[in-house]
Predict the 3D structure of the following.
Amino acid sequence: MKNIVKKIVILCLVIILLIGANLSYATTESELNSQKQENNEKITETEKKKEEVQEIKDQTVKQVQELDNQIDEYESQISNLNTQINDANTKIEEATNRLNKAQEDYDNQQKMLEERIVALYEAGDTSYLDVLLSSESVTDFISSYYIISEIAECDLELLDEIQSQKTEIENAKKELEQSKKELTDAKASKEKVSSELQTSKNEKANYVEELSEEEKQLQAQIDEIKKDNVAIDAQIKAYQAELQRKLEEQRKKDQANKNNGSSNGSSSSSSSGGITSSSGFIYPVPSAYSRITTGWYYSDGRVHGAVDFGTGGINGQPVYAVADGIVVLAQALTTSYGNYVIIMHYNGLYTLYAHGQAGSIMVRQGQTVKQGQQIMRVGNTGNSFGAHLHFEVRTSPGTYNNRQNPYNYLP
Ligand SMILES: [Zn+2]
């Protein structure tokens, strides 16, 4: 008893697992593909953003270089001003020395003059008698008085001369100081501009760094998405391998059935008249509607890439799988193919059935189908004008670019 319960539980688990597996199996590839497409859109978007960032960065780098050039220019002007200021300082020092020397001369001269004046004063103040008494002779007295007075006058002239020299030097020094002040002011204003330029340059350099960081992050995002895509590709590949394995399994089973004399296939193929082409295909619509109304080319010469079955009254008629296979896509779009199904067949061909009636799809992705099995009803969904079945044959791997002329595959 316990054993039976255990077996039932295990069976239930297996069924749940199988259903679960089948459900995920049924949605996997289209989900993976749309996820991949989403990723590719994100990559394009991120790359565009990255390009914008790069462009702004390039511009900012250029601005930094321009600022650098300006700063260099200012620095060279400042250095030039510094030389001029140093020059002015030297000259001012020289002038100061000369001024000191002149002052010294002046002081000496003044002292000498004072001495002579004292001498004169003493001579003048002294009575003639005193002079006479102290002098050897009158002549001696007169001569010494006048000589002293002459010399004093000379001293005075010299003093005046030194004074005017001193004034001249002072004026020159003042001018030098004025010019130094102007140079210093000019230097200060240039230093201010240079420092502003430096600040602006630093800000821009920081911005460049930020942009580089942003660029790196965007690239990391792109790399991440690309990695994700690689994983998706691997999953798709695994999915397709699994599909292939299932297909092979089915083919072997069918072969075994045929060898056992079982006539499993006949039940369905009758529905489309039972005519089978050399490719093993039957018509995808009932024989009464099997006339091709639009072939490989449109009437205007463009490639149609398919054949259409659009005989009047076809709306709502069954659409059949043209051969055994596995449904690789069953999708209900409102645009493009509308409600459509893609089946992968054992011979490596794919068939596509489009514009089925809304809600008429009877199969799901991952499901095996038999030749002649109804998969949906003829309709007018998607990019269609009037009910018809749009039928494509594709070679492996079954993409749009692998379309073949179905006329060569149909009965
Ligand atoms: Zn068509």
Observations:
- The helical segments are 2-125, 128-134, 138-259, 266-269.
- Residues 2-125 form the longest helix (124 residues).
- The domain at 25-233 is CATH 1.10.287 (Helix Hairpins).
